[in-house]
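Table 4 source record.
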Amino acid sequence: MIVPFETQTLEEQWDRGATPFAYHEIRYLDIDAHGNIAQQRKRAWRNGLNTKDQDITTTITFAINEAAHITSLPARVTQRDAAGAIVSATVTHYDGPAHQGLPEGQVTIGNITRKDVLVLPDDLVTAVYGAAPPDWNELRYHRRPGESGWWITQYSYDRRESAAGLTVTTRNSRGFETHLEYDGTR
């Protein structure tokens, strides 16, 4: 079976003129075998200006477990500006150990266990703090193995099921926890 995929959207904004005064475009640069958009470029610009108001390329990798029919859960979302600098990066971990999750890209049933967000790229830390940055570890930031920059765990979960019901503990980026207890009829 052949399924057509949209490759581009273009929105023109008109206002009492002979030509549009602004444009908003999304190009879908890569669509994976499961139909997920793996890379897209979003641009916005106005007529008469030499630079774009926005030019962001988003790359997405997915956590996939074909045996469980899970093929579209985002594992990593990275956004870069026109120069290639990272604007935003998030990594979502699914299932696995409480507040940790499985390794990036792995999934069993699809429950989010942890979400890490890039907060401070190394070049920004150097530009702002020079040779004397604060102790980021003490402030609950961490490094991801093999990656630059300082990350924070935006939130994480611990799910426990028993005959009495489901208990969920949510931990925020500052380490504060919220406990939810559902009865057995949930």
